[in-house]
Design goal:
Layout lengths: L3 E4 L6 H6 L1 E4 L14 H11 L5 H17 L5 E6 L4 E7 L4 E2 L8 E13 L5 H6 L6 E4 L3 H8 L6 H14 L10 H18 L3 H15 L2 E4 L10 E4 L10 E6 L7 H8 L7 E6 L5 H9 L3 E4 L1 H10 L6 H6 L14
Parallel strand pairs: 1-3, 10-11, 11-12
Antiparallel strand pairs: 1-7, 2-6, 3-4, 4-6, 5-6, 8-9, 9-10
Helix pairs in contact: 2-3, 5-6, 9-10
């Protein structure tokens, strides 16, 4: 089986997709190819660049950097979670490590030919998502690699078709349970659970009810409009109890994990009156054209699935019992990854 690597980068943006590469941090080290060939050489370089780091952290970081520079080979598969829109990208490494001195944020790179972009996280099994929730920046995916490989050469299809392919891979595999629950894994697992519940446990119409309830939990007055013939406005929200003081917020909801396109955002833009604000809410993400509209249009905000989960978790206690029962949560204490 081909080796499959997971890579996390908090600065991951569409730049990596457009220019076809993955990157890793530790810019202060400079060109990794100029450091000696052994892991001990990397440890020494890390110690000089980060004198306050603990020896254990130095050892872990050195392993990550060695894999990125020397172990990953052309033909290996990379899985890159993209937090802003709750999606995952899958690609194939097309060359060796190189250093781009013109980039301040992404100098340490591996070239990648992306095969699939913007795959909804909910396509994959919970245990697979748990495995890619590793606290490490770079790690080998072993237990659930077959799920990601199942989509590698599959043409872009509907989430349902992708789920069927992943389900088949799960049936044919003998995956083992993922590692112990560390803080970052538990947090990502919780977020995925919320997304899955909002996707699978409520209808399109109920998603509009949920959106109104979420806005009420945040502190707005909010109500849904008629389910059909609403002219592209699903929820109306405002600050004052009577809804007569500006601004009024017009909300459109899309109960889907696929990206919302520019034409759908344009439809909402066409409803904007003087002094009104616009809000688009979806469980997935948005195309570049839709994002361009957001940047150019004053008073327009696009919420992704990750944004919805942020609001859900931040205002959980203020939500109505119906929605808390959909995703029952409680506070727990877990080992903080940063403690290592």
């Amino acid at each position: 089986m081909r080796r499959v690597w997971g890579i996390h980068n908090d600065k991951l943006t569409t730049e990596l997709y457009d220019q076809e590469f993955v990157s890793i941090g530790w810019q202060e080290l400079g060109d990794l190819s100029e450091i000696g060939p052994t892991r001990d050489d990397i440890k020494e370089a890390l110690g000089r660049a980060y004198p306050s780091k603990k020896p254990q952290a130095i050892a872990v970081n050195a392993g990550v950097l060695e894999r990125f520079r020397s172990v990953i080979q052309p033909g290996d598969v990379v899985v890159a979670p993209f937090r802003p829109d709750s999606t995952i990208a899958i690609g194939v490494v097309s060359g060796g490590y190189y250093f781009d001195q013109t980039s301040e944020t992404h100098p340490n790179r591996l070239p990648v030919k992306w095969r699939r972009l913007s795959i909804p996280r909910t396509v994959f099994s919970k245990s697979a998502l748990y495995e890619v929730g590793s606290a490490l920046t770079l790690f080998q995916i072993k237990n659930h690699a077959s799920e990601f490989l199942a989509l590698l050469d599959r043409p872009q299809g509907s989430p349902g078709e992708d789920e069927a392919a992943v389900d088949q891979a799960v049936e044919e595999s003998d995956a083992e349970p993922s590692a112990e629950p560390r803080a970052s894994r538990v947090e990502r697992h919780t977020r995925d659970y919320v997304l899955s519940a909002l996707k699978d446990e409520i209808s399109h119409q109920e998603f509009e009810d949920f959106t109104a309830a979420l806005l009420r939990a945040v502190g707005y007055q909010a109500r849904t409009t008629a389910y059909s013939g609403d002219g592209g406005v699903d929820v109306l929200a405002h600050r004052d109890p009577l809804g007569v003081e500006p601004p009024q917020i017009k909300v459109q909801c899309k109960h889907q994990m696929t990206n919302v396109g520019g034409p759908e955002v344009q439809q909402l833009m066409g409803t904007q009156g003087s002094g009104e604000l616009l809000l688009f809410v979806t469980l997935g993400g948005y195309t570049q054209q839709a994002r361009d509209y957001e940047r150019a249009k004053p008073g327009l905000r696009l919420l992704t699935g990750e944004d919805v989960v942020d609001l859900f978790l931040a205002h959980y206690d203020n939500l109505e019992p119906r929605w808390r029962s959909l995703v029952p949560l409680r506070t727990v204490l877990v080992v903080d990854d940063a403690a290592d």
